[in-house]
Amino acid sequence: MSATPSSDTALPAVASHYPARPQFSGFMKPTGMEGDIGTLEVYGTIPVDIDGTFYRVMPDPQFPPFIDNDPWFNGDGSISAFTLKDGRASFKQRYVRTEKFTRERAAKRALLGKYRNKYTDAVEFKVRTTANTNVVHFNGTLLALKEDAPPYALDPDTLETIGLQTFDGQLPSLTFTAHPKFDPATGEMVCFGYEAKGDGTPDICYYRIGADGKFLETVWLVSPVVAMIHDFAVTDNWVVFPLIPQVCDLDRLKQGGEHWQWSPETPFVVGVLPRVGATPADVKWFRYPNCFPSHSCNAFEDAAGNIVFDLGLCDKNLFFWWPDAAGNAPAPETLHTKLTRFTIDPRATDLELTAAANVQVLQHGNTEFYRLDDRFATQRYRHAFFDLMDPALGTDFRAIGPQLGGGYPLYNSLGHLDIATGETEVYFPGKTHMVQEPVFIPRRGSTVEGDGYLLALVNNYASMSSELHLVDTKDFTKAVAVIMLPLRLRHGLHGNWVDAADVAK
Ligand SMILES: C=Cc1ccc(O)c(OC)c1
Ligand SMILES: [Fe+2]
């Protein structure tokens, strides 16, 4: 079928259907769905000590793009909420009413152009974010986050959009990370924005927000390279910024090019800053040979005062859809990210990090989306949970291949690494399934690290619908409950568990 010409000739033509591209096909076909289900079907038993809501976000483009080969990362943020209470589960899903979403809905067509390139838009936006990367609970509201803009605030009960969150005008940065960190002792939210003065600017704005929403401090830094800083890490005394060697160039943007280009000659730069009371001069930029830092797991300080920073590390460009200047990118099936520990002396004067002195691989499998018992965030910890891809587990790739769609990474199981013993346990959800990011739910009344449940949304390519799998960390071999959705939710990014006990104040 051919593209339908736009009725307004001033706007770029859009099709009335999604493109025949992997990121818009099979399980990744956009759904546009909002709605509520009062009680979901459950196989097994949801333990009655579980009382709370799992919020997560996925990109789900409301309209076919007018951009060719628009990446998965550019879809509209759609928030799913699964409330687990009294052994039952309910479901709610709403789009974030961003300026982009609202104006496109009114125009009944796509108006936004390329991922993070305003020069390709059909209209001028004040804020062009899709709010599609993470959803966190803070000071009574949900924050829907994408790293290119301030958060959108949402009502945790209705998922209605309240509006752009600038913290009563306190937010000094144009951008806000999708991966803020929470101090489990104080509830402080530690944040930053990069390209914080606009597209292509090297400015990083570091800020801490008290649990009551009051800004505690702001520090402006200048980055040695305008690179993506997707995640970061926090300890009691330090913050760590891993710079991904995906770089931005304003002239390329103005020419209608991509926001990001892989830079093989750029090292993996690690910024280290005192968490409290820093001045811009206090930042140190450590360097390590070119590689791709993916998500952080956790960080803490050892007895000698070193920063111990655990994150996923890939030796190739994990964001293969943004190739290097010559157009080169690795084949997706050759990517392998390992949970890796960097030990960094923040007082060092030699800023070159080396594999021999600073790096230890904690888990050799192909893993991503690391989670922990959040009560141990920023502190010494023992238990890491993650998505794992191990083809030997028995996934029927031949059967599900046609339904997978593409543009997103595939993980067929959940892993639990006991860092003290080095042992990994694996939960395999089934031969026709892939897993999304898990969340950890503490067992009520237990303060033991990692004692509780792991909950993850799972894509079932045989039924072409989504399932929630709930695993008790005391027995990782099977799910205690599989919660069925009569729907297909696209592959998403991040989410969090919000315990009812932490909301009822
Ligand atoms: C997973 C990383 C990531 C990084 C940047 C993004 O804009 C994003 O959008 C969904 C996701
Ligand atoms: Fe992320």
From TrEMBL:
GO biological process, alphabetically ordered: carotene catabolic process
Binding residues for Fe cation: 179, 230, 295, 494
InterPro entries tied to this protein: Carotenoid_Oase (IPR004294)
Record text on cofactor binding: Binds 1 Fe(2+) ion per subunit.
Cofactor: Fe(2+)
MF (Gene Ontology): carotenoid dioxygenase activity; metal ion binding
Keywords: Iron, Metal-binding, Oxidoreductase
Pfam families named in the record: RPE65 (PF03055)
Superkingdom of the source species: Eukaryota
KW Membrane (keyword) present: no
TM helices/strands, residue ranges: none
Keyword rRNA-binding: no
Entry's family note: Belongs to the carotenoid oxygenase family.
Protein name: Carotenoid oxygenase
Organism: Podospora appendiculata
